[in-house]
Amino acid sequence: MHRFIPTGLATWIGRLVLLLSFCTGLATAQTNSGNYTFVLGSGFLCDASDASTCPATAKAVQGGSYEVTGAGMFDAQSKSVKAAGTFSHKSANGNVVETGVWVASELVSFVSYGIAPGALLHEKRGLNPMQLTPMRLKASLGPTPTGGLAVFRVHLLTLSGIARTGVLQVNSALGDVPRERSVEGIRLNLESDRGEFSEEVGGRVMFLSTRSEANSTAKALENRVESESAQRTDN
Fold it and tell me: What's the first-to-final CA gap in the chain, in angstroms?
């Protein structure tokens, strides 16, 4: 008997594709909707020459691991969230146990470490300092890179149709980062004693703040660079 992907899972896969496409493009987009968007172990954060950037990986003491990618958006005040991604569960010897998609059902909490306007420029590989002109900085205004720790309640849907629930912690080590959260990555705790994956092995994470105060700070940075550029020209 053939196995078919459940209708609900197929629907979420379709939504995931659209969501990832939308959120990956936020690196250069201008938007005021929502409070935060984020990219997890995917899109512009990935570096083909550095396998540790994508996907984001959490490891258990016993050696098993979860590799996770995704994207989404959330409002830190109302706790609303729309986020999804893919996961791959591997055993201690590296064999794939199961794969599927995850969907965030709740934003449990979010703690901001502050904004880091220059972080997005570092992701534009191949640029040198002379290329970071005020004109290029103007293009980067809008969603501003922000560090923080987001905790989501998630549903994990496997391709075999088995559903699990858990808590996914997503940590971006930008801004004023607490010492105990200096390692960027994810942690995953599955409910019903199915496992705790609390070691951040690798993976890039970035929150993008769309709040007006973040954009104001980015605008101030642009004005400062323009001023310094003008002074160099006069001299």
Answer: 78
Q: Which two tokens stand for residue 72?
A: 């989404």
Count of domains observed in the chain: 1
Contact 144, 117 (CB under 8 A): yes
Residue that is written with structure tokens 């502050």 in the block = 114
Share the mean pLDDT of the chain: 77
Tokens of 125: 């590989």
What the block records as the tokens of 55 is 């996907």
Name the band, by pLDDT with cuts 50, 70 and 90, for residue 128: very low
Domain limits for position 148: 7-234
In a domain, 153, yes or no: yes
Cross-strand bridge partners of residue 67: 57, 88
CA nearest neighbour of 225 among 141, 163, 134? 134
Contact between residue 97 and residue 162 where contact means Cβ atoms under 8 Å apart: no
CA–CA distance, 24 with 167 (Å, rounded to integer): 23
d(CA 204, CA 172): 8
- Tokens (6 digits) for 152: 């989501």
Residue 164 lies in a domain: yes
pLDDT tens figures, 105-117: 999 999 999 988 8
108 domain residue, yes or no: yes
| CB atoms near residue 77 (< 10 Å) | 8
User: Does residue 193 fall inside a structural domain?
Assistant: yes
What pTM was estimated for this model as a whole?
0.74
Give the residue-averaged pLDDT of 68-92. Answer: 95
